[in-house]
UniProtKB/TrEMBL annotation:
It comes from Chitinophaga oryzae. PROSITE patterns: PKD (PS50093). Residues 1-28 form the signal peptide. The keyword Signal applies. Gene3D superfamilies: Immunoglobulins. The keyword Ribosomal protein does not apply. Keywords: Signal. SUPFAM superfamilies: PKD domain. The lineage of its organism: Bacteria, Pseudomonadati, Bacteroidota, Chitinophagia, Chitinophagales. InterPro entries: Ig-like_fold, PKD_dom, PKD_dom_sf, T9SS_type_B. This is Gliding motility-associated C-terminal domain-containing protein. Transmembrane segments: none annotated.
Length: 554
């Protein structure tokens, strides 16, 4: 047998659905998706097209979860089912005062435990493999790319995971791809004596082995010989390359100059003076005696000297981290929040409008904010104006219990003149409740929105428990007992009666048992006694505490 609480929740659900406006819009059924069907998992419910919806009410079809069996969130609604089984989810959506009801069954299952393979797999560019989920008769499959077969062809870097019957298998496989590297040590070279060269075979996700025994991606060259490298890209076939370097002729001093730092918008011209140069080759492909650089790079030049040998040098052109400062557009933030302004480009000098010298600044009040930053010889500055707005805190007051036929003007506190809508999409200044239900208000401004709701319930006020103010326990069969009179079921009942000295002379937990006017087997003295009663109404679940007096007469 279902508990009283479960029956009460069911009655409330039916009552709320019955009280919704009767006008239906058949074309406005609101489809939604279910993120998971796993037991004891957060099952998120996503409305496919939420545009135009003013308010919603979800019912998850899970009465044992009590107050967690519903939600009024348009976005972010979720429920955790503690038991497997099939449940019916009901979505009530309002659009401009018109509601529609969408129901959808969901079958909650236990996750399938299965090993899809190694946690991390690396393949070579263009390679493929197949991942297989367990074959379960009648099961449905959904991989992360929306394919629905038990097997999936792996051809892209991704985390591969599968849902079986809508429930995610706990295991997954991370697949990575190694690009096929292009290892080019370049053509054979003749260098002037005393030159130094560094060969570079660096590539993504590789290990290396030079014929010199070196396992680094780069190899320094100072002597004549053939230098070869074996490159092992993870997941790919081995790649090799070789170059012959010959040293001859006299040494020739050559330099492109020191590494340099440019500010944004600047450029540098590299034009070394080499009178004996007979040929030029730059890293950008130029063959002229000079080039202009306005980007960050390692720039090298290979210069032939008197048609005998070559000299080489490299310069690093670095761009300053300090780009044009931009604190953003003038903005408004909500009162109680703060804004972080940042000019952080690393080590440098910073100066804000109040003299502070940190790279970041916390805005806690409205005003104009200014920063000047300098890194090396590069400088930049910017200004922003910040305004504040009060946040909304809508409050409709506590849940209310009324006597039948009463009306209730729902008080609105905290809207602050912001636009708002009630649960039926109206915007009347004050909503009058005439029937039981959940009433909600949504207000919004530049700081976002605020939502509150209040439950209005009705009950039969004749359910009140009454006690007489006097009785005559003289045994004549009339008014011989002191006990309550009531018309509705009550529970958790206790009645205590005290004499004028504070001694308890009677106690019972059964409302059908009354005081006979006797104390310790003897007739009670004439006079007035104090009674205290506690009970709870079965239908409303409301606890009641009352006190009063009763006079014993004979």
């Amino acid at each position: 047998m279902r508990s009283l609480q479960t029956r009460r929740l069911s009655r409330i659900l039916l009552l709320l659905l019955a009280l919704l406006p009767v006008a239906l819009k058949s074309s406005a059924v609101t489809p939604f998706t279910v993120s998971s069907t796993c037991v004891q998992d957060s099952v998120f419910l996503v409305i496919r097209q939420p545009a135009g919806i003013d308010s919603v009410k979800w019912y998850f079809g899970d009465p044992p979860s009590a107050e967690k069996d519903s939600s009024d969130k348009i976005r972010g609604a979720f429920h955790v089912y503690q038991q497997t089984g099939t449940y019916t989810i009901t979505l009530v959506a309002w659009r401009s005062g018109v509601r529609d009801i969408t129901t959808q069954p969901v079958t909650i299952v236990t996750p399938v435990i299965f090993d899809l393979g190694p946690q991390d797999v690396t393949l070579c560019e263009g390679g493929t493999m197949t991942l297989s989920a367990p074959v379960i008769p009648g099961a449905t499959y959904l991989w992360q790319d929306s394919s629905t077969s038990p097997d999936i062809l792996v051809d892209t870097s991704a985390t591969y995971k599968v849902k079986i019957n809508g429930c995610l298998v706990p295991d997954s496989v991370n697949v990575f791809y190694t690009p096929i590297p292009k290892i080019e040590l370049g053509p054979d070279l003749v260098l002037c004596s005393g030159e130094q060269l560094q060969l570079d075979a660096t590539a993504q996700n590789c290990t290396y082995l030079w014929n010199t025994g070196n396992t680094d991606p780069v190899q320094d060259v100072r002597t004549t010989g053939t230098y070869s490298v074996r490159v092992f890209p993870k997941g790919c076939a081995e790649i090799t390359d070789a170059i012959t370097i010959t040293f001859t002729g006299p040494p020739y001093p050559f330099s492109l100059g020191p590494d340099t730092l440019l500010c944004p918008g600047e450029s540098i011209t590299l034009a070394p003076s080499v009178p004996e140069a007979t040929a030029w080759k730059w890293s950008n492909g130029a063959t002229t005696p000079s080039i202009s650089v306005n980007y960050e790079a390692n720039i090298w030049a290979l210069v032939e000297i008197n048609h005998i040998c070559n000299v080489v040098d490299t310069i690093f052109v670095n761009f300053n981290r300090l780009r044009k400062l931009n604190l953003g557009n003038d903005t408004t933030i909500c009162k109680g929040n703060f804004l972080v302004l940042t000019a952080d480009f690393g080590n440098g000098l910073y100066r804000w409008q109040d003299g502070s010298d940190q790279a970041t600044y916390y805005v806690t009040k409205p005003g104009n904010y200014f920063v000047h930053a300098q890194i090396g010889r590069c400088e930049s500055s910017d200004t922003i104006h910040v305004s504040f707005n009060d946040t909304l805190r809508v409050n409709l007051g506590p849940d209310t219990l009324l006597c039948r036929n009463e009306v209730y003007q729902i008080p609105v506190v905290g809207a602050g003149g912001a636009p708002f809508k009630w649960q039926d999409s109206t915007s009347i200044p004050q909503f009058v409740a005439r029937q039981p239900g959940i009433y909600s208000l949504t207000a919004w401004n530049a700081c976002g929105k605020s939502v509150d709701s209040v439950r209005v319930d009705y009950h039969d006020c004749e359910c009140t428990v009454h006690f007489p103010n006097a009785f005559t326990p003289n045994g004549d069969g009339r008014n011989d007992y002191f006990r309550p009179r009531y018309r509705c079921p009550i529970e958790q009942y206790t009645l205590s009666i005290y004499n004028r000295w504070g001694e308890r002379v009677f106690y019972t937990t059964d409302p059908q048992i009354g005081w006979t006017g006797r104390v310790k087997g003897l007739q009670a003295d004439l006079g007035t006694y104090v009674w205290i009663v506690d009970y709870r109404e079965v239908y409303t679940r409301i606890p009641v505490h009352k006190t009063g007096t009763v006079t014993v007469l004979y």
